[in-house]
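Q: Sequence in, structure out?
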Amino acid sequence: MLTSSYIGVFNIMPRGIILHTADNVATLIDSARDGQTCTLQGEVAGQVIARQDIAFGHKICIAPIPLGANVLKYGQVIGRATRAIAAGEHAHVHNVDSARARGDRQERQEVRP
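A: Exactly. Output:
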């Protein structure tokens, strides 16, 4: 779970950015190793412990997300959890069903000559 922390003048380099106060994921600006504390800055500041190795640019869950719940980034729904995702876990295609650019989910429309 995200824990609050003050990041002062002699701050630790942030490892992730939270883009909106409603977000339940943060974007990593540096890769994280299993067990490392990730310092987060942006619209909310805090820390979360990575539960696995997560690559640069990928999302880390900052609050528990139940099965079927919305995954929020930019304050917008970017997908739904296909299983419960714990804080500190990698949020990606293995546990998030994207809500964006899903042409395979659009209803087919008949084309009439």
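The CA atoms of residues 20 and 43 lie 5 Å apart.
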